[in-house]
Amino acid sequence: MISFKNVNKWFGDLHVLQDINLEVAQGEVVVICGPSGSGKSTLIRCVNRLEPIQEGELVVDNTPVHNKKTNLTKIRAEIGFIFQAFNLYPHMTALENVTIAPMKVKRIQKKEAEKLGRETLTKVGLGDRIEQYPAQLSGGQEQRVAIARGLCMNPKIMLFDEPTSALDPEMISEVLDVMRDLAMGGMTMMVVTHEMGFAREVADRVVFMDEGKIIEVAPPEDFFKNPQTVRGKAFLTSILDH
Amino acid sequence: MWSFYLKELIHSLPFFLDGLLVTVQVSGLSLIAGTIIGFICGILRASGNKFVRFIIGAWVDLIRGTPFLVQIFIIFFILPEVGIELEAFPAAVIALSNLAASFICEIVAGGILSVPSEQKEAATASGLSGYQQMRYIVFPQAMRTILPPLVGQYVLTIKDSSLVSAIGVMDVTRAGWLTVQRIPEGLMVFGLVGLLYFAVCYPLINFSGYLERRMNYENTKL
Protein backbone atom coordinates (compact mmCIF):
# COMPACT_ATOMS: atom_id res chain seq x y z
CA MET A 1 0.00 0.00 0.00
CA ILE A 2 2.79 2.38 0.95
CA SER A 3 6.31 1.73 -0.21
CA PHE A 4 9.46 3.74 0.59
CA LYS A 5 12.47 2.88 -1.58
CA ASN A 6 15.79 4.52 -0.67
CA VAL A 7 14.03 7.72 0.31
CA ASN A 8 16.29 10.62 1.24
CA LYS A 9 15.31 14.06 2.36
CA TRP A 10 17.23 17.14 3.43
CA PHE A 11 16.19 20.34 5.19
CA GLY A 12 19.02 22.51 3.90
CA ASP A 13 22.15 20.72 5.11
CA LEU A 14 20.26 18.57 7.56
CA HIS A 15 19.82 15.03 6.27
CA VAL A 16 16.45 14.33 7.93
CA LEU A 17 15.56 11.08 6.18
CA GLN A 18 18.39 8.72 5.29
CA ASP A 19 17.88 5.75 2.96
CA ILE A 20 14.42 4.91 4.18
CA ASN A 21 13.11 1.54 3.01
CA LEU A 22 9.73 0.47 4.32
CA GLU A 23 6.70 -1.40 3.03
CA VAL A 24 3.30 -1.00 4.65
CA ALA A 25 0.74 -3.57 3.57
CA GLN A 26 -2.97 -2.96 3.16
CA GLY A 27 -4.75 -3.12 6.51
CA GLU A 28 -1.49 -2.94 8.41
CA VAL A 29 -0.99 -0.70 11.43
CA VAL A 30 2.55 0.60 11.76
CA VAL A 31 3.60 2.62 14.78
CA ILE A 32 6.63 4.86 14.36
CA CYS A 33 8.51 5.83 17.48
CA GLY A 34 11.81 7.38 18.34
CA PRO A 35 13.34 10.38 20.08
CA SER A 36 12.25 13.86 19.01
CA GLY A 37 14.04 15.09 15.91
CA SER A 38 14.45 11.56 14.61
CA GLY A 39 12.37 12.26 11.48
CA LYS A 40 9.20 10.34 12.36
CA SER A 41 6.82 13.20 11.56
CA THR A 42 8.74 14.08 8.43
CA LEU A 43 8.49 10.46 7.32
CA ILE A 44 4.69 10.39 7.35
CA ARG A 45 4.41 13.95 6.03
CA CYS A 46 6.16 12.73 2.88
CA VAL A 47 3.46 10.14 2.26
CA ASN A 48 0.88 12.73 1.14
CA ARG A 49 3.60 15.13 0.01
CA LEU A 50 3.16 17.74 2.69
CA GLU A 51 6.96 17.50 2.41
CA PRO A 52 8.87 16.84 -0.82
CA ILE A 53 11.63 14.23 -0.97
CA GLN A 54 14.88 14.75 -2.82
CA GLU A 55 15.86 11.16 -3.59
CA GLY A 56 14.29 7.75 -3.85
CA GLU A 57 10.79 6.59 -4.58
CA LEU A 58 7.61 6.69 -2.53
CA VAL A 59 4.65 4.78 -3.94
CA VAL A 60 1.17 4.95 -2.44
CA ASP A 61 -1.52 2.66 -3.81
CA ASN A 62 0.54 2.04 -6.97
CA THR A 63 0.99 5.77 -7.59
CA PRO A 64 4.39 7.44 -7.28
CA VAL A 65 3.70 10.38 -4.96
CA HIS A 66 6.78 12.45 -5.70
CA ASN A 67 6.32 12.63 -9.42
CA LYS A 68 5.45 15.89 -11.15
CA LYS A 69 2.71 14.23 -13.20
CA THR A 70 0.94 12.69 -10.21
CA ASN A 71 -2.55 13.96 -9.45
CA LEU A 72 -1.89 15.11 -5.89
CA THR A 73 -5.49 15.97 -5.13
CA LYS A 74 -6.55 12.41 -5.86
CA ILE A 75 -3.79 10.96 -3.67
CA ARG A 76 -4.47 13.36 -0.82
CA ALA A 77 -8.19 12.64 -0.98
CA GLU A 78 -7.35 8.98 -0.29
CA ILE A 79 -5.11 9.71 2.69
CA GLY A 80 -6.44 11.06 5.97
CA PHE A 81 -3.91 13.07 7.97
CA ILE A 82 -4.30 13.77 11.67
CA PHE A 83 -2.20 16.56 13.19
CA GLN A 84 -0.88 16.89 16.69
CA ALA A 85 -2.63 20.25 17.11
CA PHE A 86 -5.86 19.05 15.43
CA ASN A 87 -5.85 21.99 12.97
CA LEU A 88 -9.62 22.20 12.82
CA TYR A 89 -11.06 25.19 10.97
CA PRO A 90 -12.11 27.50 13.82
CA HIS A 91 -14.71 29.40 11.78
CA MET A 92 -16.67 26.25 10.97
CA THR A 93 -18.85 23.97 13.07
CA ALA A 94 -17.84 20.35 13.59
CA LEU A 95 -20.19 19.34 10.78
CA GLU A 96 -18.82 21.99 8.42
CA ASN A 97 -15.28 20.93 9.28
CA VAL A 98 -15.94 17.36 8.19
CA THR A 99 -18.07 18.14 5.11
CA ILE A 100 -16.02 20.83 3.38
CA ALA A 101 -13.54 18.48 1.70
CA PRO A 102 -16.13 15.88 0.56
CA MET A 103 -18.17 18.71 -0.96
CA LYS A 104 -15.34 20.65 -2.57
CA VAL A 105 -12.88 17.89 -3.48
CA LYS A 106 -15.18 14.96 -4.17
CA ARG A 107 -18.09 17.12 -5.34
CA ILE A 108 -20.59 15.31 -3.12
CA GLN A 109 -23.95 17.09 -2.78
CA LYS A 110 -24.36 19.10 0.42
CA LYS A 111 -27.25 17.00 1.73
CA GLU A 112 -25.39 13.77 1.16
CA ALA A 113 -22.19 15.17 2.66
CA GLU A 114 -24.06 16.28 5.78
CA LYS A 115 -25.62 12.85 6.17
CA LEU A 116 -22.16 11.31 5.88
CA GLY A 117 -20.77 13.91 8.30
CA ARG A 118 -23.45 13.22 10.91
CA GLU A 119 -22.89 9.48 10.66
CA THR A 120 -19.12 9.82 10.95
CA LEU A 121 -19.28 12.25 13.87
CA THR A 122 -21.69 9.88 15.60
CA LYS A 123 -19.26 7.04 14.99
CA VAL A 124 -16.50 8.91 16.86
CA GLY A 125 -18.94 9.63 19.69
CA LEU A 126 -19.78 13.24 18.86
CA GLY A 127 -23.32 12.90 17.50
CA ASP A 128 -24.46 15.57 19.96
CA ARG A 129 -21.72 18.06 19.06
CA ILE A 130 -22.17 18.52 15.34
CA GLU A 131 -23.26 22.17 15.52
CA GLN A 132 -20.47 23.26 17.89
CA TYR A 133 -17.41 25.26 16.97
CA PRO A 134 -13.93 23.92 17.74
CA ALA A 135 -13.49 26.52 20.51
CA GLN A 136 -16.50 24.98 22.27
CA LEU A 137 -15.00 21.48 22.26
CA SER A 138 -12.41 19.84 24.50
CA GLY A 139 -9.09 18.76 23.05
CA GLY A 140 -10.14 15.13 22.89
CA GLN A 141 -13.35 16.07 21.13
CA GLU A 142 -11.47 18.29 18.70
CA GLN A 143 -9.11 15.48 17.79
CA ARG A 144 -12.04 13.14 17.24
CA VAL A 145 -13.63 15.73 14.92
CA ALA A 146 -10.28 15.83 13.08
CA ILE A 147 -10.35 12.06 12.72
CA ALA A 148 -13.94 12.23 11.48
CA ARG A 149 -12.82 14.90 8.99
CA GLY A 150 -10.28 12.46 7.63
CA LEU A 151 -12.74 9.55 7.58
CA CYS A 152 -15.40 11.51 5.66
CA MET A 153 -13.16 11.35 2.61
CA ASN A 154 -13.40 7.56 2.82
CA PRO A 155 -9.62 7.23 2.80
CA LYS A 156 -7.59 4.11 2.10
CA ILE A 157 -4.87 5.22 4.48
CA MET A 158 -4.85 7.22 7.72
CA LEU A 159 -1.69 8.96 8.94
CA PHE A 160 -1.44 10.15 12.55
CA ASP A 161 1.21 12.65 13.62
CA GLU A 162 1.39 12.41 17.43
CA PRO A 163 -2.40 12.56 17.71
CA THR A 164 -2.48 12.52 21.52
CA SER A 165 0.60 14.58 22.39
CA ALA A 166 -1.35 17.83 22.77
CA LEU A 167 -4.05 16.29 24.94
CA ASP A 168 -4.64 16.24 28.67
CA PRO A 169 -4.05 12.73 30.04
CA GLU A 170 -7.73 12.04 30.72
CA MET A 171 -8.59 12.72 27.07
CA ILE A 172 -6.00 10.48 25.49
CA SER A 173 -8.00 7.28 25.81
CA GLU A 174 -11.08 8.61 24.00
CA VAL A 175 -8.90 9.35 20.96
CA LEU A 176 -7.00 6.07 21.18
CA ASP A 177 -10.33 4.20 21.37
CA VAL A 178 -11.40 5.69 18.07
CA MET A 179 -8.04 4.80 16.52
CA ARG A 180 -8.28 1.26 17.87
CA ASP A 181 -11.72 0.85 16.27
CA LEU A 182 -10.29 2.07 12.98
CA ALA A 183 -7.43 -0.40 13.16
CA MET A 184 -9.83 -3.25 13.94
CA GLY A 185 -11.90 -2.18 10.93
CA GLY A 186 -8.93 -2.88 8.67
CA MET A 187 -7.70 0.66 8.00
CA THR A 188 -4.11 0.99 6.80
CA MET A 189 -2.47 3.25 9.38
CA MET A 190 0.87 4.86 10.07
CA VAL A 191 0.94 6.30 13.56
CA VAL A 192 3.66 8.45 15.08
CA THR A 193 3.11 8.21 18.80
CA HIS A 194 4.67 7.87 22.21
CA GLU A 195 1.71 5.80 23.43
CA MET A 196 3.53 2.54 23.89
CA GLY A 197 0.45 0.84 25.31
CA PHE A 198 -1.38 1.57 22.09
CA ALA A 199 1.58 0.37 20.02
CA ARG A 200 1.82 -2.87 21.97
CA GLU A 201 -1.87 -3.59 21.62
CA VAL A 202 -2.76 -2.37 18.14
CA ALA A 203 0.37 -2.19 16.00
CA ASP A 204 1.32 -4.97 13.62
CA ARG A 205 4.85 -3.59 13.50
CA VAL A 206 6.84 -0.97 15.33
CA VAL A 207 9.34 1.15 13.42
CA PHE A 208 12.03 2.71 15.58
CA MET A 209 13.78 5.75 14.12
CA ASP A 210 16.75 7.78 15.25
CA GLU A 211 18.64 10.60 13.51
CA GLY A 212 16.73 10.18 10.27
CA LYS A 213 17.30 6.46 9.94
CA ILE A 214 15.11 3.45 10.52
CA ILE A 215 17.01 1.56 13.21
CA GLU A 216 14.67 -1.30 13.91
CA VAL A 217 11.45 -2.76 12.51
CA ALA A 218 9.80 -5.48 14.57
CA PRO A 219 6.45 -6.76 15.84
CA PRO A 220 5.63 -4.87 19.06
CA GLU A 221 6.09 -7.86 21.38
CA ASP A 222 9.63 -8.38 20.06
CA PHE A 223 10.56 -4.72 20.06
CA PHE A 224 9.33 -4.01 23.56
CA LYS A 225 10.64 -7.20 25.14
CA ASN A 226 13.85 -7.57 23.30
CA PRO A 227 15.06 -4.60 21.23
CA GLN A 228 17.89 -5.61 18.95
CA THR A 229 19.83 -2.35 18.99
CA VAL A 230 21.55 -0.32 21.67
CA ARG A 231 19.68 2.82 20.67
CA GLY A 232 16.36 0.98 20.76
CA LYS A 233 17.15 -0.22 24.27
CA ALA A 234 18.16 3.24 25.40
CA PHE A 235 14.98 4.74 23.94
CA LEU A 236 12.73 2.20 25.61
CA THR A 237 14.49 2.69 28.93
CA SER A 238 14.06 6.45 28.70
CA ILE A 239 10.36 6.37 27.91
CA LEU A 240 9.44 3.56 30.26
CA ASP A 241 11.28 5.11 33.18
CA HIS A 242 9.68 8.51 33.02
CA MET B 1 -21.14 90.89 14.14
CA TRP B 2 -20.87 87.32 15.28
CA SER B 3 -24.60 86.67 14.88
CA PHE B 4 -24.52 88.31 11.46
CA TYR B 5 -21.77 85.92 10.33
CA LEU B 6 -23.66 83.01 11.82
CA LYS B 7 -26.73 83.95 9.83
CA GLU B 8 -24.60 84.26 6.71
CA LEU B 9 -23.09 80.87 7.39
CA ILE B 10 -26.47 79.24 7.86
CA HIS B 11 -27.44 80.91 4.62
CA SER B 12 -24.54 79.20 2.84
CA LEU B 13 -25.31 75.82 4.33
CA PRO B 14 -26.52 74.41 0.97
CA PHE B 15 -23.11 75.34 -0.46
CA PHE B 16 -21.43 73.29 2.28
CA LEU B 17 -23.80 70.39 1.75
CA ASP B 18 -22.93 70.41 -1.97
CA GLY B 19 -19.29 70.28 -0.89
CA LEU B 20 -20.04 67.42 1.47
CA LEU B 21 -21.69 65.56 -1.40
CA VAL B 22 -18.49 65.95 -3.45
CA THR B 23 -16.42 64.77 -0.46
CA VAL B 24 -18.65 61.72 -0.15
CA GLN B 25 -18.41 61.09 -3.90
CA VAL B 26 -14.63 61.37 -4.03
CA SER B 27 -14.19 59.24 -0.90
CA GLY B 28 -16.89 56.73 -1.86
CA LEU B 29 -15.52 56.11 -5.36
CA SER B 30 -11.97 55.92 -4.00
CA LEU B 31 -12.99 53.48 -1.29
CA ILE B 32 -14.71 51.19 -3.78
CA ALA B 33 -11.73 51.24 -6.16
CA GLY B 34 -9.22 51.18 -3.31
CA THR B 35 -10.94 48.20 -1.67
CA ILE B 36 -11.03 46.18 -4.88
CA ILE B 37 -7.42 46.97 -5.83
CA GLY B 38 -6.26 46.68 -2.22
CA PHE B 39 -7.78 43.23 -1.78
CA ILE B 40 -6.35 41.93 -5.05
CA CYS B 41 -2.89 43.30 -4.24
CA GLY B 42 -3.12 42.14 -0.62
CA ILE B 43 -3.95 38.57 -1.64
CA LEU B 44 -1.13 38.60 -4.22
CA ARG B 45 1.26 40.08 -1.69
CA ALA B 46 0.49 37.34 0.80
CA SER B 47 0.52 34.44 -1.63
CA GLY B 48 1.82 35.46 -5.05
CA ASN B 49 5.27 34.74 -6.45
CA LYS B 50 8.39 36.53 -5.30
CA PHE B 51 8.52 39.03 -8.15
CA VAL B 52 4.87 40.06 -7.74
CA ARG B 53 5.37 40.42 -4.00
CA PHE B 54 8.41 42.62 -4.56
CA ILE B 55 6.62 44.91 -7.03
CA ILE B 56 3.60 45.34 -4.76
CA GLY B 57 5.83 45.87 -1.73
CA ALA B 58 7.78 48.59 -3.54
CA TRP B 59 4.56 50.33 -4.60
CA VAL B 60 3.16 50.22 -1.07
CA ASP B 61 6.39 51.63 0.39
CA LEU B 62 6.49 54.39 -2.20
CA ILE B 63 2.90 55.48 -1.58
CA ARG B 64 3.15 55.22 2.18
CA GLY B 65 6.50 56.99 2.22
CA THR B 66 5.45 60.12 0.31
CA PRO B 67 3.00 62.87 1.33
CA PHE B 68 -0.46 62.52 -0.15
CA LEU B 69 -0.45 66.16 -1.24
CA VAL B 70 2.63 65.50 -3.36
CA GLN B 71 0.95 62.47 -4.91
CA ILE B 72 -2.07 64.59 -5.84
CA PHE B 73 0.20 67.23 -7.41
CA ILE B 74 2.09 64.61 -9.38
CA ILE B 75 -1.12 63.22 -10.83
CA PHE B 76 -2.73 66.58 -11.49
CA PHE B 77 0.20 68.78 -12.53
CA ILE B 78 2.93 66.44 -13.69
CA LEU B 79 1.04 63.80 -15.66
CA PRO B 80 -0.16 66.44 -18.20
CA GLU B 81 3.54 66.99 -18.99
CA VAL B 82 3.62 63.48 -20.43
CA GLY B 83 0.32 63.94 -22.19
CA ILE B 84 -2.11 62.58 -19.59
CA GLU B 85 -4.53 65.39 -18.96
CA LEU B 86 -7.07 64.94 -16.14
CA GLU B 87 -9.88 67.01 -14.66
CA ALA B 88 -9.56 67.77 -10.96
CA PHE B 89 -12.27 65.33 -9.91
CA PRO B 90 -10.95 62.19 -11.65
CA ALA B 91 -7.39 63.15 -10.65
CA ALA B 92 -8.56 63.34 -7.05
CA VAL B 93 -10.32 59.99 -7.25
CA ILE B 94 -7.26 58.34 -8.82
CA ALA B 95 -4.88 59.76 -6.21
CA LEU B 96 -7.13 58.84 -3.29
CA SER B 97 -7.91 55.36 -4.67
CA ASN B 98 -4.20 54.73 -5.04
CA LEU B 99 -3.56 55.85 -1.46
CA ALA B 100 -6.44 53.81 -0.03
CA ALA B 101 -5.42 50.74 -2.07
CA SER B 102 -1.88 50.79 -0.71
CA PHE B 103 -3.06 50.89 2.90
CA ILE B 104 -5.81 48.31 2.34
CA CYS B 105 -3.28 46.06 0.60
CA GLU B 106 -1.20 46.02 3.79
CA ILE B 107 -4.23 45.34 5.99
CA VAL B 108 -5.37 42.46 3.77
CA ALA B 109 -1.90 40.93 3.43
CA GLY B 110 -1.42 41.17 7.20
CA GLY B 111 -4.78 39.51 7.81
CA ILE B 112 -4.01 36.62 5.47
CA LEU B 113 -0.56 36.09 6.96
CA SER B 114 -2.07 36.07 10.45
CA VAL B 115 -3.89 32.82 9.67
CA PRO B 116 -1.66 30.01 11.00
CA SER B 117 0.06 28.01 8.26
CA GLU B 118 -1.30 24.83 9.89
CA GLN B 119 -4.73 25.77 8.57
CA LYS B 120 -3.43 25.69 5.03
CA GLU B 121 -1.62 22.48 5.75
CA ALA B 122 -4.80 20.79 7.01
CA ALA B 123 -6.63 21.98 3.91
CA THR B 124 -3.81 20.79 1.66
CA ALA B 125 -3.85 17.38 3.31
CA SER B 126 -7.56 16.99 2.61
CA GLY B 127 -7.04 17.71 -1.09
CA LEU B 128 -8.42 21.26 -1.36
CA SER B 129 -6.85 23.24 -4.20
CA GLY B 130 -4.92 26.45 -3.60
CA TYR B 131 -7.92 28.53 -4.65
CA GLN B 132 -10.30 26.51 -2.46
CA GLN B 133 -7.96 26.88 0.51
CA MET B 134 -7.98 30.65 0.11
CA ARG B 135 -11.71 30.83 -0.55
CA TYR B 136 -13.03 28.55 2.19
CA ILE B 137 -10.33 28.27 4.84
CA VAL B 138 -7.85 31.14 4.89
CA PHE B 139 -9.87 34.13 3.70
CA PRO B 140 -12.89 33.76 6.01
CA GLN B 141 -10.51 33.61 8.97
CA ALA B 142 -8.43 36.50 7.68
CA MET B 143 -11.56 38.66 7.35
CA ARG B 144 -11.88 38.70 11.14
CA THR B 145 -8.49 40.34 11.39
CA ILE B 146 -9.05 42.53 8.35
CA LEU B 147 -12.49 44.06 9.01
CA PRO B 148 -11.91 46.34 12.01
CA PRO B 149 -8.77 48.09 10.63
CA LEU B 150 -10.38 48.18 7.17
CA VAL B 151 -13.28 50.27 8.43
CA GLY B 152 -10.76 52.37 10.36
CA GLN B 153 -8.91 52.94 7.09
CA TYR B 154 -12.17 54.10 5.49
CA VAL B 155 -12.39 56.84 8.12
CA LEU B 156 -8.78 57.89 7.45
CA THR B 157 -9.44 57.96 3.70
CA ILE B 158 -12.48 60.19 4.09
CA LYS B 159 -10.40 62.61 6.15
CA ASP B 160 -7.48 62.44 3.70
CA SER B 161 -9.88 63.42 0.94
CA SER B 162 -9.80 66.98 2.33
CA LEU B 163 -6.41 67.43 0.63
CA VAL B 164 -7.94 67.16 -2.85
CA SER B 165 -9.32 70.66 -2.30
CA ALA B 166 -5.77 71.78 -3.09
CA ILE B 167 -6.30 71.08 -6.79
CA GLY B 168 -9.66 72.82 -6.83
CA VAL B 169 -12.10 69.99 -6.24
CA MET B 170 -15.18 71.63 -4.73
CA ASP B 171 -15.36 69.43 -1.67
CA VAL B 172 -16.45 70.52 1.78
CA THR B 173 -12.95 71.72 2.73
CA ARG B 174 -12.78 73.92 -0.35
CA ALA B 175 -16.26 75.21 0.50
CA GLY B 176 -14.74 76.27 3.81
CA TRP B 177 -11.80 78.01 2.11
CA LEU B 178 -14.06 79.99 -0.17
CA THR B 179 -16.54 80.86 2.55
CA VAL B 180 -13.93 82.04 5.01
CA GLN B 181 -13.02 84.79 2.56
CA ARG B 182 -16.56 86.11 2.81
CA ILE B 183 -17.14 85.29 6.45
CA PRO B 184 -13.81 85.91 8.23
CA GLU B 185 -14.68 83.80 11.27
CA GLY B 186 -12.25 80.92 10.78
CA LEU B 187 -13.29 79.07 13.88
CA MET B 188 -16.93 79.16 12.94
CA VAL B 189 -16.45 78.23 9.27
CA PHE B 190 -13.96 75.43 9.79
CA GLY B 191 -15.87 74.34 12.88
CA LEU B 192 -18.75 73.63 10.54
CA VAL B 193 -16.44 71.87 8.06
CA GLY B 194 -15.09 69.69 10.87
CA LEU B 195 -18.58 68.95 12.09
CA LEU B 196 -19.64 67.77 8.64
CA TYR B 197 -16.64 65.40 8.38
CA PHE B 198 -17.38 64.16 11.85
CA ALA B 199 -21.01 63.46 10.92
CA VAL B 200 -19.79 61.14 8.14
CA CYS B 201 -16.92 59.54 10.07
CA TYR B 202 -18.45 59.03 13.49
CA PRO B 203 -20.85 56.24 12.50
CA LEU B 204 -17.94 54.48 10.80
CA ILE B 205 -15.74 54.85 13.89
CA ASN B 206 -18.50 53.27 15.95
CA PHE B 207 -18.94 50.53 13.38
CA SER B 208 -15.20 49.78 13.50
CA GLY B 209 -15.31 49.60 17.29
CA TYR B 210 -18.33 47.32 17.11
CA LEU B 211 -16.58 45.01 14.65
CA GLU B 212 -13.49 44.89 16.82
CA ARG B 213 -15.49 43.86 19.89
CA ARG B 214 -17.50 41.36 17.88
CA MET B 215 -14.46 39.75 16.29
CA ASN B 216 -12.71 39.50 19.65
CA TYR B 217 -15.80 37.99 21.18
CA GLU B 218 -16.00 35.42 18.41
CA ASN B 219 -12.37 34.52 18.80
CA THR B 220 -12.41 34.06 22.52
CA LYS B 221 -15.85 32.49 22.74
CA LEU B 222 -15.78 29.53 25.09
Task: Describe the protein in words.
With 242 residues, chain A is α/β, with parallel strands linked by helices. Chain A contains nine helices and ten strands. Chain A has helices at residues 40-47, 72-77, 94-104, 110-123, 139-151, 169-184, 196-202, 220-225, 230-241; strands at 2-11, 14-24, 29-33, 55-60, 63-64, 79-82, 157-161, 188-192, 205-210, 213-218. In chain A, the strands form two sheets. In chain A, strands 6-7-8-3-9-10 form a six-stranded mixed β-sheet, with helices on both faces. In chain A, strand 9 and strand 10 form a beta hairpin. In chain A, helix 3 crosses helix 4, helix 3 packs parallel to helix 5 (139-151) and helix 4 (110-123) crosses helix 5 (139-151). Chain B has helices at residues 2-11, 13-47, 50-64, 68-78, 88-113, 117-125, 130-160, 172-182, 186-220. In chain B, helix 2 (13-47) runs antiparallel to helix 3 (50-64), helix 2 crosses helix 5 and helix 6 (117-125) runs antiparallel to helix 7 (130-160). Chain B is mostly helical and 222 residues long. The model of chain B has no long low-confidence stretch (mean pLDDT 92). Chain B has nine helices and no strands. Helices cover 82% and strands 0% of the residues of chain B. The chains are: A alpha/beta (242), B mainly alpha (222). The interface between A and B is medium-sized, with 26 and 21 residues.
